[in-house]
Amino acid sequence: MADSQTYSLSGTDGQRLIYGLSLASVAIFINLYLTQGMLPMLAERFDVSAGHSTLVVSVTSFSLALSLLGYALLSDRIGRRRPLIASLWLLALSNLLLFWVPDFDALLWLRLGQGMLLASVPAIAMAYLKDRLPPVMLMTAAALYIAANSFGGIAGRLLGGVMAQYLDWNQAVLLLTVLTLLLVASAQWLLGIDRGADKRHVRQGQGALGGFVLHLGNPYLRGLYLLGGLAFMVMVNQFSFIQLHLMAEPFGWNRFQATLIFLCYLSGTLSSGQSARLMNKLGTVPLLILSIGLMALGSVLTLANTELAICLGFLCSACGFFLIHACCNSLVALGAEQHRAKATALYLCSYYLGAALGGPFLMPFWQTWHWQGVVAGSLLLIAANALALWRWQHLAKSRQLDTPVSLRRCRN
């Protein structure tokens, strides 16, 4: 394989690559989470229960999770840019099919297919940046890209609430399609400077699946995958069900007002930015214990059933969740001394599988006991995550030779 430094971008071209991938990320996460802000509208339009409407988030996350692994393999074989650009255009055009969706089952199948397209950017972007940028630009690039993820997620949910409140279905689909086309066209224009990227490699990977097998055989990494997956299983689905709770009595929030709860994600955006400093100051395990505790505290606070208590609870939960996510993401990258892109893909796969499985898991709790049931189900998952953390710490201590020195330092 050619020396990656020969192909490195810097200066203006490097900035265009960063901005192009950031815009692509915004497009992806708006399309991923827009339906989460439209759940009440979807329930009414397709005549399904409010709880049943949350499946539209679960099926998209499920297909996204499984597709991450395929894109990781594909981009190693044919390059980063081509599969990324192709999937973005297919996503934009697939939104046109929403005009003719006849029922909720058809919507679920369409979103299942779109989830496969949505996986491209999360699977490829960080490897693309590592391939093409000099080390001095990489940290800034990663920070901007992660910020774009967060912005896209919040913007998608709030935009979904605005659409549900003020637009009908066809108007909402038209706005989504036009917005996605504009973002994709802008991203392609910015990434146009890097047309040589796909010629630079077809990786000579001996055993394309070998990296996945290697990482899945490592109990240290498996523990991190479980920690991230269980945390997201709680977090993303709590945000789905709380909208339905806030729209019911005694609150009576409208569709748009209910999506404002997603602004609580900002506490997580801020906390994740401080995660490296906190890991160095407190140590990884104490920080993870604190983070799981914050998620439990936040869930319990919402049982007070006042608007202030619910907002404070979600601020705590989001803070704790994003600290867990930031810690696990960093430790996976540090712990995988080979095939790092595949290790990250496996982490993201478990992360989004958690989101997909959380909806069906919590739905019976919602149907039986409403929000109090969702909290009870969430606390069960948080307890399972605490047990997983204890198990992970025990394995890490007993397998000193299986973890790099950098991890041994940050774990203590």
From TrEMBL:
Domain of life: Bacteria
Residue ranges occupied by any Major facilitator superfamily (MFS) profile domain in the UniProt entry: 17-395
UniProt topology in membrane: Multi-pass membrane protein
Cell compartments where the protein resides: Cell membrane
Alphabetical UniProt keywords: Cell membrane, Membrane, Transmembrane, Transmembrane helix, Transport
PROSITE patterns for this protein: MFS
Segments traversing the membrane: 17-34, 54-74, 83-102, 108-129, 136-160, 172-193, 224-244, 256-273, 285-304, 310-332, 344-363, 369-390
Family that this chain belongs to: Belongs to the major facilitator superfamily.
Protein's name according to its UniProt entry: MFS transporter
Lineage of the organism: Bacteria, Pseudomonadati, Pseudomonadota, Gammaproteobacteria, Alteromonadales
